[in-house]
Amino acid sequence: MHPAIDRILHTEAEIQERIASVAATISQRLGGEPLTVIGVLNGAVVFVSDLIRHLDAPLELAFVSASSYRDGTTSGSLELDFLPAPKQIEGRRVLLVDDILDTGRTMKGLVAELYARGAAEVHGCVLLDKPSRRVVDIDVDFVGFSIEDAFVVGYGLDFAGLYRNLPYIGVLKSEHATVPADDAEPPGTTPSP
Ligand code: IMP
Ligand code: MG
What we know:
Layout: E1 5-10, H1 12-30, E2 35-41, H2 45-52, E3 59-68, E4 78-81, E5 93-101, H3 105-116, E6 121-129, E7 142-146, E8 152-153, E9 169-172
Parallel strand pairs: 2-3, 2-5, 5-6, 6-7
Antiparallel strand pairs: 1-9, 3-4, 8-9
Bound molecules: inosinic acid and magnesium ion.
Inosinic acid (IMP) binds near residues 101, 102 and 188.
């Protein structure tokens, strides 16, 4: 185990097994209709690349980058980048894939944005869900694991850009989960008391 990890929440084998099962549920629910799979950069890259290999529907893969403002006055507004081409959204059935549902702002904002850009259907899919952290009302259709309120890394999830390459999902040791005071607070971090 990496020395910055306090404990492993989900092993590589558990993750792979769960992804196969989530993919089977997606295939059952959405059938074999054409799909645009949109991964949210950077955290969902590992998850989405494993997930699509279990899906049989004819699909296109695209990515979006979303940063949300957390200053309270503009909550819910997202800065978006790398948006898919209009033809990948307009009239399409979209599977929006993120690493983790935390406050819910990113997913909620992206779902609204995709409908505004003409998507016929948007289905949310996250590997992890931290229901206790939710601040906006949003339900996603497909969830890998529901987890406690802890800052987790690995399998695509980062802290200050690191740990995405760990093959498992682990809780970061608290002494590794702080940033210098003049740095911005990373998204999803629960401020220390
Ligand atoms: P939101 O709060 O639901 O909008 O989540 C925003 C983003 O915060 C997610 O897409 C993740 O990239 C990040 N995030 C939230 N919780 C964690 C965590 O425990 N570890 C790493 N990233 C997280
Ligand atoms: Mg993210």
